[in-house]
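Narrative of activities, Objective 1.

The group set out to show that a structural description can be obtained from nothing but a protein's sequence at a throughput compatible with the screening campaign. Below is one input-output pair from the validation batch, recorded exactly as produced.
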Amino acid sequence: MSIETAKELNNDCHSAIVDRGALEQTLHEQGEVWHQEIIERCPHLFAAVPLFISSKEMEQMHAVIEAIHQVVKLSAWRDAVLQYTPDIARYIPHAKGVFFGYDFHLNAEGAHLIEINTNAGGALFNALELHSQCDVVAPGKPASIGNLEQVFLDMFHNEWRLERGDAPLQTIAIVDEQPCEQYFYPEFVLMQQIFERAGIAAFIADPSELEARTDGLYLHERKVDLIYNRLTDFFLQQHSAISTAFQRNQVVLTPHPHVYALYADKRNLALLTAPDSLLAMGVAETTITTLSNGIPQTMLVDAQAHEQWRQQRKQWFFKPATGYGGKGTYRGANITKRVLAEIMQGGYIAQRMAPPGERMVCLEGAELVALKSDVRCYVYDGQVQLIATRLYQGQTTNFRTVGGGFAPVRVVD
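Output recorded for this entry:
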């Protein structure tokens, strides 16, 4: 079986390695200064080995993504999830939202969706790594569609067309708080270069540099057509200039609050794992089965059941409902009484434990290390563009693990 083959390959640290020389050459081709910044800022950005998955696991991830895509289309779903969001999420643009990230843990029980992100980072890094390894002989095949740079550019052009038709796209702002301080700042630069090669003026900006005027949103004296939104203030509650221009339809924002509310608010996972509620919405039983098999049971944390949560805490992983990047997340087995009491105050979901897969890595000095794997599907409008993984040690994914980081995914039949 392909599942057993993938497991055997992942358990063998010699089954395949990332050609570091080829990767460094590709990184250097993006610019000497840029490459040096990667070396200094992100020393553990790329893993030493690829991850192998089976075609069956890939098909299950695709099926879960498609099932969610179908559920989210329902007006009953929209009505349900918008009950607990700010008013801005009720403003519905035409844009679909770029770079969704569906994060899965793959283990002996199958593929398990852990969360959905609507501004997932790392797609361009993974595209570069994939490109650098195209001549490497290894089992399986790459888990991506071809010509990713063009695919990503076409995605932004489509967002623009959905909102503005045939009007020319002239200026894009890539926006995050203190962007130069962000770990993924080098990826912002890559995206800026892609836009500029396509003849679009592109700027990396802090939201404080933007001003909402009567005729649109401005970056200093330049009018902004589209914002590639990397902010983690998902409902723009701290960013009035962007919020105002967005709700006046004066700037195209992608991703935007409405798609965050529909897909990425972690409270939605509780609804996606509630079969009776889904059935009442008109979701097909086959779709419900796909979701039940592919998403760990998720519940809203209720302070009234404090004692029950205390007793069962080892079976659960606790996450803030509107959190991101693993911040404020806790494995129930490691939780203290104080932290549990804080979680009981509200704003948390509990997700039944679904352990990540593992990949064996040989480090320098012949040290053998088992790293955890978190598999991410980058998705646009329901289509999977690229599957990559993050290898790590610790409670949540990070880029501080020797031998870990982003790793290419190879699919074995």
